Amino acid sequence: MAESPYWNPKTETLPREELRALQLTKLRYLCAWAHARSPFYQRSFAAAGFHPDQLRSWDDLRRIPLLTRAEWMESQAAKPPYGELPAIDARQAIRLHTTSGTSGSEPLRALDTRKDWAWAAEMWAYAIWGCGIRPVDTSYLAFGYGSFIGFWGLHYGMEKVGVLNVPGGAQTTESRAKQIVDFGATAVASTPTYAIRLAQEAQRLGLDLPGAKVERIILSGEPCPQQTKDLIEGLWGAKAFDTAGMTEISTIFMFECAQQPGGAHLIEDHLIEEVLDPVTSEPVDYGENGERVVTSFGRSAIPLIRYRSSDLVRKLPASSCTCGRTTDLYDGGVIGRVDDMKLVRGTNVYPRAIEGIVRGFGEIVEFQTRLFTSETLRDEIALRVEVPDGYADWPTLHDKLHQELADAHEGLNFLVERAETGSLPRFELKARRTVDERTRS
User: Fold this and answer.
1) Of 225, 196, 99, which is closest to residue 150 (Cα–Cα)?
2) 342-436: what CATH class?
3) Is the peptide bond before 261 cis (omega within 30 degrees of 0)?
4) Where in the chain is the domain with CATH 3.30.300.30?
5) Phi, psi for residue 217 in degrees, rounded to 5
6) Its pTM surpasses 0.85
7) In this predicted model, what pLDDT tens digit does every residue of 312-328 receive, in sequence order?
8) Does domain 14-337 match CATH 3.40.50.12780?
9) Can you state the angle between helices 394-408 and 351-358, rounded to 10 degrees?
10) Residues with Cβ < 8 Å from 300, sequence gap 6 or more?
């Protein structure tokens, strides 16, 4: 019998009308659960004049109030340590994870029950199986295994699928690069930034990554433009697959299938993924950029209902991919963050757009974008780049970078600077390559 390309063939290929009906049934149950058990949702629903009994059709979804990170943080601060979103007693939880701290001064704290954590692994299994990883594979997770949720769910997802799993925590980049080769890993997981760093370290050590056994790389943790994926695939001699998750739901919400259609499938049998205008909160059409708003059906400890993620996405219909799944896709994955955009002298600048240009130059080892106020009180933007010692063609690289950045940003003048080798920060988890030092009057 032929092997299925789907982890869950029934729901991954469910006709759209049946999928919508399944989502509505789960939504009713989730809202009833939150209304009965979460003090936060009891107040929030009452203030919006909403009751779960009002969910009679798909259009009633918009009766439910939106949830923001600020509201969650305020609840957590008012009633520490977990706030009033939880629908369980903390003693019923078996895990506690936090956000990475890249947004806000304090991380969110999220609880999971045993059932919740099994669900998180199940969600990752969709991605693992969908990109072609099987029980015969050996996976290496290049991840620190701390309180940040990171690849914890992937670890248990690999075990669920039956993959031989190598946890790569508490080690140097050099040690990880050696182990990937020595253990014959066929699949590796890391952030896009760290995948590049591992490859650079392997080159320094004289390790032949393209000649090693790695066939697939699972990327997560930060936006990954196509140019970055192309660079990673060239450095590793392996296929790279984009995924994205969040601590707020404890797992992933999208994955790239083996067809690599240029977008990532949403796991819509377990989630509702809305794309709204970030200003008006009105739905946007397929192909239009908007803010990702998520409702998660799998985490009972902390129900997440219509949560404004601040992720910038662009949804495409399921027909955009030929793999046979009926779930919609995010074109190019997560494009960036709604709040990442920087305004420089009237021009919108997005970190992902800069990275897309930089990654087209393979000689660039690392980079950083610096915004500052000049002596004449004018906003300036500088791109600092590292190239290998002895690199002789800096003037040409400088001019090409300068021109491509200007062309992509309405003629905005980027100062392109060569940084001393090894002077720019390196990252294992989410990269923070934009530094805004501008003074504000």
Assistant:
1) 99
2) alpha beta
3) no
4) 342-436
5) -125, 125
6) yes
7) 999 999 999 999 999 99
8) yes
9) 140
10) 33, 87, 88, 113, 115, 116
